Amino acid sequence: MSPESALSTRRLAPGAALAQAQPWQAPPVTLESPALDVITDLTQMKAATVQPGVSLHEAEQTMIYQGVRMLFVVTEMPALEGLITTTDLRGAKAMAAVHDLGLHWDELTVADVMTGLPMLDAIDFDAMRSARVGNVIATLKQFGRNHLLVVDQGTRVRGVVSRSQIERQLGRVIEMAEVASSFAEIEKMLA
User: Fold this and answer.
1) Based on the structure, what is the number of domains in the chain?
2) What is the rounded CA–CA span in Å between residue 21 and residue 28?
3) Model pLDDT for residues 3-61, shown as the tens digit of each residue
4) Nearest Cα to Cα of residue 132 among 169, 157, 176
5) Considering the domain boundaries, does residue 84 fall inside one?
């Protein structure tokens, strides 16, 4: 067939149906399942990203569109600057930024509320190879986090583990206690 030739077509009859993709389902896990069963491996799935200058509203819309609760903050791929979560968008960080910067919420950008690299906790991918889901949950609880990064080769973010994904795979809620990571947070918790 010549590249300029048109393809033949036909009319659809009543009763035509749409093909439907199978929804992605993570396999169920137990506390004894391998930790690698709950990682979102960025070598297998594209990272959801946002730039630091994007408004919080746009970041929220990106999360909704991509079906995620966390975005990696990058200025230029693949250089990571931090991350932003749904909690950051509407939580205490956003309200503090409104107060401290004298802005309205709709004027805030991702850079105003994101968690920068120095504040991010990460697990080595090699440790994940021998760990169990229970170990990952214990680590999330220890740091009071909903997400932990997984790194390999020292500084390359290989993946992420998400409390909400683990909860879906376990079929139950993971109870978390609030953990302070700074003196300001300790003061706030005691107030």
Assistant:
1) 1
2) 20
3) 898 888 777 788 776 676 655 566 789 999 999 999 999 999 899 999 999 999 999 99
4) 169
5) yes
